[in-house]
Amino acid sequence: MTLDTEVIVVGGGPVGLGLATELALHGVRAVLIERRTDPSVQPRAKLTNLRSMALLRRWGLADEVRRRAPLPDGYPSDIVFCTRMTGWLLARFDNALSTAATPDAPYAEPAQQIPQTVLEEVLRTQLMGAPTVEVRIGTSVVDLRQSEDRAEVLLDTGEQLTCSYIVGCDGSQSTVRRGTGISMNGGAPLATNVGIVFRAPDLHAMHDLGRAVHYWTINPEMPAILGPLDAEDGWWFHATAVDPSTDVKSIDAHSWLIAAVGKRFDAEILAVDPWIAHRVVAQDYRRGRVFLAGDAAHLHPPMGGYGMNLGIGDAVDLGWKLAARLRGWGGEAILDSYQTERQSLAHRVIRESVDNYRILGNNLSAPNIERADATGDRARQEAARRIKENKRKEFSSTGLQLGYRYDHSPLIVSDGTPPPPLDVGRLAPTARPGHLLPHQWIEEGVALADLLKASSFTLLRCGADADVAGLVKDAERRSIPLTVVALDLDSDDRALLGAPLVLVRPDQHVAWRGHSISDPTGLLNRVTGTTVVGPAGADGQAGANGRAAAHGQAGSERRQAWVIRWAAQVPAAELMPLLPQHHAYRRRLIEAGALLGTRPFGSADAAVDDHSVWLVIASTAEEAERLTAAEPWAAAGLRRCTLQAWALVTAAVPGGTSPSSLNRSGRNGQCVQ
After folding, report:
1. Which long-range contacts (CB under 8 A, 24 or more apart) does 445-451 make?
2. Domain at 457, CATH number
3. Which tens digits make up the pLDDT trace of 370-423?
4. Is 569 a domain residue?
5. How far separated are the first and last CA of the chain, in Å rounded?
6. Are residues 589 and 542 in the same domain?
7. pTM, 2 dp
8. CA dihedral sign, ordered 327, 330, 331, 336
9. Residue 367 exposed, middle or buried by CB count within 10 Å (0-12, 13-18, 19+)
10. Count: domains in the chain
């Protein structure tokens, strides 16, 4: 069967462009479809954060992004809180959002202030020279369908394109998501906000607060955030959590700007864009041959600068996995792992961004904050205290940007070491499996991550003692891209890696580490999703259970488990004590936990968020119904959303059974009260 292309990417924003860039890196044929013919005036995202800059460095584009940034090199990266731009200074955060280079920083690339529109231009220009990617501008997808062996889109031109996979990177109103029937789960909209883009040549000279990238205005009349798009006359503005009774479609934008600045000034209004802050995540990131990424899969407030950057991370995670599957060296489980890894991170990021959004200028103001007397002084001092107490982590989030991990990924081989605490503001560098490879300078201008090959696995080898020939030979036999890099590190740097052998994925996450490779085939099976194995052996290898499943040995069996998904209406901390502790529940959760991204209820770090929780509760649908009826679910603040059949493959080995794969095979129910 001949297909028009291998992957169709719907949406040409930074996520779609990033996915196309990643696919081009791996030589995958792709068509990118973008309905817009002209760039948006509204810049949307304005920060390319630490993780995205690391990925741009990996693509060879970090220097070009910095060259194209409208704010010049060395522009102060401060964030200023003031009553109004021409009013009182309340607080200042320097090197906000990690945009300044420091000698001891735990990263090679600082973040970069750059409008999303400019970043898109950099990525689009790069793609124009990619031989395997076709970019179609001014074209829309109006319908899509899929079968067992292909997917297809219908364009507004009447043309039909066939492919192996479709990825919806088409934003919050995703045509791909709606066409696939995937729902968005989460709470009600948080608030309405209004964005304005304008030109004001005199604004820089009107205040004495100094240059900064954000100015937060804290006053009862116009709490807002504004900042420069360039060093001349371009500005952006957001009025946050506006009064629900406001008709945002007919506002006097210039008067709103004057209220935030505190003095009249000339401004040319370029765009007015009301927007609603949400906190929702797609129920599924994959349906068959269709995937979602970026805003099509998750929406949350922009506070902290996570939105676009979370989507770029989605693109890289999915991109190398699609390439692996298309080239035949990745199993089907490698595609399923995309949701396991990225959806859990989305929930964590959303919790943080919503927490940031709860404390806006609207909440920090006080009735007397602009009085020019002792009462006003006290009000401003109290506001400054609250700002420093509540907003610091929003502008210093290195721990979340670079310290997240894929603990429950079926592609990661745990070495049994405990994870470091996830502190939003502080990164604890580690090469523990599931984490990003920690930053180290190898020599001037060359970071450890620069030694990784972006289109292959990389085995870092410290010392000549460990035998890696078996792994290299098996990878060659199976056409799994693998590069071996010999390192000569001092004792401190070797200690940071934690083992003489470290296997790193194409996306810079550590897949495995250890002192020896006793089962190269089992290890490669695990990290490529060829088989998903049970607990790792003592040497950090894929265990005997996985080897039996990988080679189709006798003793493997396929059985069905019934999974009920519940939506929680109360915070996780309140929900946990109400959930069942019965042995049967815990046993079934332990069996499938790694593959569902959960842990047994009652454990300190059970993967329960404010919205949903998965339960593996029965071997038959009838048993599921019986157990459900017997438990006080309503008292726990839960409503039932889905009942699904999953195929659970186990391998019979001494000492019990362990899951080797878990795949959806059943039916979905509608969410009911």
Report:
1. 447/108, 449/54, 449/57, 449/58, 449/108, 449/508, 450/57, 450/108, 451/485, 451/487
2. 3.40.30.120
3. 999 999 999 999 999 999 999 999 999 999 999 999 999 999 999 999 999 989
4. yes
5. 46
6. no
7. 0.81
8. negative
9. exposed
10. 3
